[in-house]
Amino acid sequence: MQHMSAALARRVALAAQGFGRPVVATPGLRQFTALVHRIGLLQIDSVNVFERSHYMPVFSRLGSYDKAQLDRLTSSPKMTEYWAHEASFIPVQTLPLLRWRQEHYRERAYADENSWFNSHRAMTRWLLDELAEKGPQRASDIEHESNTRSGSWWGWSDVKNGLETLFRWGDVVSAGRTRFERVYALPEQVLPAEIIERRVPRDEAIRQLVSISARAHGVATAADIADYFRLKNADALPAILELHEAGELVPVAVDGWQKAAWLHRDARLPRRMEAAALLSPFDPVVWHRPRAERLFDFHYRIEIYTPEPKRVFGYYVLPVLIDDKVVGRLDVKNDRQAGVLRVKAAWSERSAPSDTAARLAPVLRETMLWQGLDSIEVSPKGTLAAALSAESA
């Protein structure tokens, strides 16, 4: 078994995620496509207090870019949307690898006599007919007496429930988004025929998902690899062992890691890592919290749903990556009306180098310009706030 230092493991993990590569002055579709294939997916989330989550990993790795260009890619035939890690944009070639998951959702709904589907079969049939007749539509476009929210503000209408049920099964797919609302379509209306017709046995599909995950990690435990596509450990481990037998994965012992790890044969082993970036809470570098703690000694919990008096760091906190360490966190808000990037709190970690604020200030200025804002305001809250305010003045 090979041996690896914790510092090298961090650099390998970040390199696999696309950090430390030469920066292109004006990144475009080619760079976006290469990045998505490298990391496998872009997680989607509705929170917009700063920026939608799927735009952030591209900015963190490639720098300023035109979001409309990324929208062109995510709404093109090259990509689609499905439940991968969570709701995610994925290369369209990945969708057949998740068909076993669609079939599992369908079987579970049919088997549960109390499921929403079993009480609304007529609704799902009607929705399929509606899409067949009228083409791709948003839930809000569909005229039906049941298309009103139920219960709380977050409650879904029966139309939305039906479309989401069919989406989980693959009977309905995404045709992109309009003002962030998913557009639903029948597969034959938007997907290439070879994607619709492709059938991959479950074990082979899981093996390919594990391969994508392992490549995107660089070095990882079995649990890390399984989490990327929300696989069960019991399903992921046989696939890992098969990839080991095939020479794709190499067992390694990483200093300080309590469990064995696996190194992808194509992983880069950088001697150093130069990076300075803000990370989305839904970035693959930090989304699996046990891995973030193991790699960076960084304990991270998103506090959006924590009552304000109980929040420790803030509402929408972005981890700060400097070189191969996560050295701080910022609670940020995009005040679009005032044209201000508001840093409501800025915190440094114990391992933060003395020049953290100086390294971070240019990232904030680039972020401000990327968002089309005019200024930065740093509130005095947090251990990094004073230094960051001085550097950002």
Keywords:
5-stranded mixed β-sheet; globular; 16 helices; alpha+beta; 393 residues; single chain
Low-confidence stretches: none
Beta strands, count: 15
Q: How many helical stretches?
A: 16
Q: Strand content of the residues, in percent?
A: 15-25%
Q: What is the CA-atom radius of gyration, in angstroms? A: 22 Å
Could you outline the blueprint of secondary structure elements for this entry?
Blueprint: E1 2-4, H1 6-16, H2 29-39, E2 42-43, H3 56-62, H4 67-74, E3 79-83, E4 87-91, H5 99-111, H6 116-119, H7 121-134, E5 137-138, H8 158-169, E6 173-178, E7 181-185, H9 187-190, H10 193-197, H11 202-217, E8 219-220, H12 222-228, H13 233-245, E9 249-254, E10 261-264, E11 276-278, H14 289-296, E12 317-322, E13 325-335, E14 340-348, H15 356-370, E15 375-378, H16 385-392
Parallel strand pairs: 1-9, 14-15
Antiparallel strand pairs: 2-4, 3-4, 5-7, 6-7, 8-10, 9-10, 11-12, 12-13, 13-14
Helix pairs in contact: 11-12, 11-13, 12-13, 15-16
Question: How does this model look, in words?
Answer:
The chain has 393 residues and is an alpha+beta fold. 40% of the residues lie in helices and 19% in strands. The protein has 16 helices and 15 strands. It has helices at 6-16, 29-39, 56-62, 67-74, 99-111, 116-119, 121-134, 158-169, 187-190, 193-197, 202-217, 222-228, 233-245, 289-296, 356-370, 385-392; strands at 2-4, 42-43, 79-83, 87-91, 137-138, 173-178, 181-185, 219-220, 249-254, 261-264, 276-278, 317-322, 325-335, 340-348, 375-378. It has a five-stranded mixed sheet. A four-stranded mixed sheet has the order 1-9-10-8. Strands 2-4-3 form a three-stranded antiparallel sheet. Strand 9 and strand 10 form a beta hairpin. Helix 11 packs across helix 12, helix 12 (222-228) crosses helix 13 (233-245) and helix 15 (356-370) crosses helix 16 (385-392). The longest helix has 16 residues, at 202-217.
